[in-house]
Design brief:
alpha+beta; two-stranded antiparallel ribbon; elongated
Length: 247
């Protein structure tokens, strides 16, 4: 049985809507399920508990709808093509984050943490961890962030045995260049002289060990497009100083 995602709208006159359902949804079965899982303190008590829900909405955005965002306007409309182009005519969730980040960079701004680490973490359960410990390397939206501060490089932390073979300390930066982008903004690092299999051992004055995810977050939070960021790489037996492009 397929899962069906739903949006719960706690407002007068609003309906419970199935989102991205791939098959007809039985309204009665859905209602029975929601009746079993609904939290009486939240749903059954509405609207008497309205005051307790204040401030629990998402941040206000400067755009009325996703299709009004600069990188999406003109490419999409508010209507889906349900016949032939459902996927192609739909704004995907990660594209909204991409558009918000692109708008900041186009204004030559640093990125705030909530745009670097946008997805809910343990704080949803009342816990709060340092955001730079969140691994964003496998998220779809991180590809564009790599272009912004890594020039299209894909990096991987060298494991212990490889560090020992190369004589690199366990507590120092050693990010292996797994891939170098070749097109558009993703070719910026290649054009700056970075090669596949280089090992970054210093970036922006720091030699402390960190993951690709942490490095992306640090650079996005500290640097604007056009900034000059010095990087040192190991290439064979040579140690080279290069400039990592900020876009």
């Amino acid at each position: 049985m397929r899962r069906v995602w739903v949006v719960l709208a706690l407002a007068p006159g609003k309906q419970l809507l199935p989102v991205a359902a791939r098959r007809p949804v039985c309204a009665r079965a859905l209602r029975r399920h929601l009746e079993r899982v609904k939290h009486p303190a939240l749903h059954a008590a509405y609207p008497l508990n309205t005051s307790t829900l204040k401030g629990k909405q998402g941040r206000p955005l400067p755009y009325r709808t996703p299709v009004d965002m600069p990188t999406l306007v003109g490419k999409y409309t508010r209507n889906r093509d349900w016949e032939d182009q459902v996927v192609a005519s739909c704004v995907h969730c990660h594209q909204i984050g991409d558009a918000l980040r692109a708008a900041h960079r186009e204004r030559d701004e640093r990125l705030p943490p909530h745009l670097i680490y946008p997805f809910p973490g343990p704080e949803a359960l009342g816990l709060e961890l340092a955001p730079d410990r969140v691994d964003i390397s496998r998220r779809v939206g991180t590809r564009e962030m790599r272009a912004m501060v890594l020039g299209g490089l894909l990096l991987e932390d060298l494991p212990g045995e490889e560090r020992q073979r190369r004589g690199l300390p366990a507590d120092r930066l050693a990010l292996w260049v797994k891939h170098v982008g070749e097109y558009g903004r993703h070719a910026a690092a290649k054009q700056a002289g970075f090669w596949k299999d280089d090992v970054l051992v210093e970036v922006a004055g720091s030699t402390a060990r960190e993951t690709e995810s942490a490095l992306i977050g640090r650079l996005l939070g500290q640097h604007r497009p056009g900034d000059t960021v010095r990087a040192v790489v190991l290439r064979g037996g040579d140690r080279l100083a290069l400039v990592l492009p900020m876009q």
